[in-house]
Specification:
179 residues, two-stranded antiparallel ribbon, mainly alpha, single chain, elongated, 6 helices
Length: 179
């Protein structure tokens, strides 16, 4: 979630008392939201941290593919990141591997627009492959046209961006844990 021109770019109500980095949160009364809203200021109790992590892992469990839509997350990415990092810092025990994996996997949650590009490309690829399997020259030409219109280059760039961010998070975890 980012701030654009001093306003939060969130398009959905968020659970909890959280603040958009640099801008107004959608629940902030100055943004037309909840009059009882109090922004997250960095203090996070162990119970709150575990609530955030638990909700995130439930979201991971419900995922049907390896990529998810950021708006499906129960909290903004940055809040989940902070909760996981603080939990790792406080409790580097047997559960840490799962937290580390969850921390890296958080980068697989992307914007709806990016998700649609990947989804459309995968659908077009499956359709084109099915058409090619008929070995009919006409359907092979149709499948080539489908693939030209499928935004393959953009889909590849999105996948590369996800992979790069996941690698960055893995390096960050390795620096923290000393592994």
């Amino acid at each position: 979630m980012t701030a654009i021109n001093g306003k939060c770019s969130a398009r959905r109500p968020l659970k909890g008392r959280l603040e958009c980095g640099g801008g107004l949160h959608p629940r902030d009364p100055r943004h037309g939201g909840d009059k009882d809203y109090r922004p997250f200021r960095g203090a996070m109790s162990r119970d709150r941290r575990r609530e955030i992590i638990s909700a995130y892992f439930k979201t991971l469990d419900r995922m049907k593919t390896s990529i998810g839509v950021e708006s499906d997350l129960p909290f903004p990415k940055e809040i989940i990141r902070v909760a996981i990092l603080r939990e790792l810092a406080e409790n580097s025990g047997s559960d840490s591997k799962g937290l580390e994996i969850g921390y890296v996997q958080l980068e697989a949650f992307i914007s709806l627009a990016e998700y649609r590009v990947l989804e459309d490309f995968m659908s077009a690829s499956r359709l084109a492959q099915d058409l090619v399997e008929t070995a009919d020259p006409t359907t092979i030409m149709i499948s080539a046209g489908i693939m030209r219109n499928a935004e393959g280059d953009r889909a590849v760039r999105i996948q590369e961006k996800i992979s790069e961010r996941m690698h960055e998070r893995l390096v960050q975890i390795q620096e923290i844990t000393g592994e």
